[in-house]
Amino acid sequence: MRDVVRLSTGIAVVADDTWAAFSGRDALRVEWDEGENASHTTGTYWKRLEEAIGKARVTRSDGDYKSAFPAAARRLEATYRYGFQAHAPVEPMNCFADVRESRCAIRVGTQAPNEAQAAAAKLLGIPLEAVELEVNLLGGGFGRRLDYDYVPEAVELSRAIRKPVQVVWSRRDDFENDRYQPAALHALSAGLDASGRIVAWSHRVGEFNLTMFGPFAPNDPDSYDENPWGVFDNPYEIPSLEAQLGLAPSAVPTGAWRSVGYPSSIFARESFLDEIAAAAGRDPVRLRLDLLKGKTPAEIGGYKIQRDRLAAVVELAAAKAGWGKPLPARAGRRVGLGIAANVYHGRTHMAQVAEVSVGAGGDVRVHRIVCAADCGQVVNLLGLEGQVESGIVWGLSQLKSEITFQNGRVEQHNFRDYPVLRLDETPEIEIHVVPNTERPSGAGEQPVPPVAPAVGNAIFAATGKRVRALPVRPADLA
Questions:
Q1: Does residue 428 share a domain with residue 323?
Q2: Same domain? 121 vs 236
Q3: Same domain, 222 and 243
Q4: What's the rounded Cα separation, in Å, for the pair 395 and 389?
Q5: Does 174 fall in a domain?
Q6: CB of 451 closer than 8 Å to CB of 354
Q7: Total structural domains within the chain
Q8: Which of 136, 168, 200 is at the close of a domain?
Q9: What is the distance in angstroms between the CA of the first residue and the CA of the last residue of the chain?
Q10: DSSP bridge partners of 203
Q11: Is the pLDDT of residue 458 over 90?
Q12: Mind listing the pLDDT tens digit for each residue in 40-69?
């Protein structure tokens, strides 16, 4: 070990190799100023979301929900909770920097190379062209590497010790200093007429701002424009529909996570749609298809949602999954199918059917995910399949894990207490593509949102018990 250096963001241990640096870090004793958030717990943040949802602003209003809901023959309400999530890349944050008198060389895996280059130039007070930044396509991004906080650390340290340096975060550093997917609270209400048709729908969301992209700005119109994702752009035709958003300031660093705002919204929306189907005695697939028979494309804000394309993937996923046919028996386990669908920013259309089984103790096993995708013309089928498979695995991991807080600190430090999907838990994944010659629209983030509600709806089909909070807790299903 060579040195201990105080940086603007913390303390760096300098050594000849990573093992020595980590050993020195473990031996280091630091007295930290715990700050104003030292008493915060997970409950603190849920309380903030409850306050935010009570002050939600209307961002979309179709028809007259306030009259239609009280007049409905039957009314349903449900609240869904979505916990904080970590990015948890296999490779923690790291960066190489070599600062000389009038130039700087950086080697780094980042999703924001231009911004990182500009930040280094500003920190050093040198021209932008004096900073050479080479992007290594390594490390896993998933939105975490859109923030480049680890780059200035390496630049600052190299300048301090006057030598080239590679800054490597420990696994614990990575978990405790992530830019987390924020927790969210969803309150939904629906009114049905005497025939079970949805005549009124309200979806209110309380969520935190994404600190990665700037300070909390509750009065910024852009915060509410066409938001929340998956709520404002609800693709289903409902005569009276209202979307609302309430923002809360986040004391926790938050940021982009694979598919950003859609996962919690689609979990709530598609799960609640399944609740309506059960209450009305209707098939969940048929209910969705009926709600997609309206005008297409549906012009919702700046989106033009092609309901016929969404209906097509719903039908295809259901058919390929054997919807309506008996499932194979699994000894000592309850079995079920569930479906969910989404249009991502009015472009990529996806539907997924999950086949699950639930043990007597409430343990859930996902055996198969059938995904139907319409994302325009497919140029590289293997690329599409890789994106969809990885998105589904990502979506399944959020069913198992959650970031929680106690005394202002993150309670999860490694994959032991923040489990992600393992190889032996990965289900069979089937991908069916709808042929299309329209412009390609992407498949990287788009597979994630339908996963959780499809599994949750399958759990209900198997057990009769609703999943209204993530992660899924076996004790609730026993």
A1: yes
A2: no
A3: yes
A4: 10
A5: no
A6: yes
A7: 2
A8: 168
A9: 52
A10: 188, 243
A11: yes
A12: 999 999 999 999 999 999 999 999 999 999
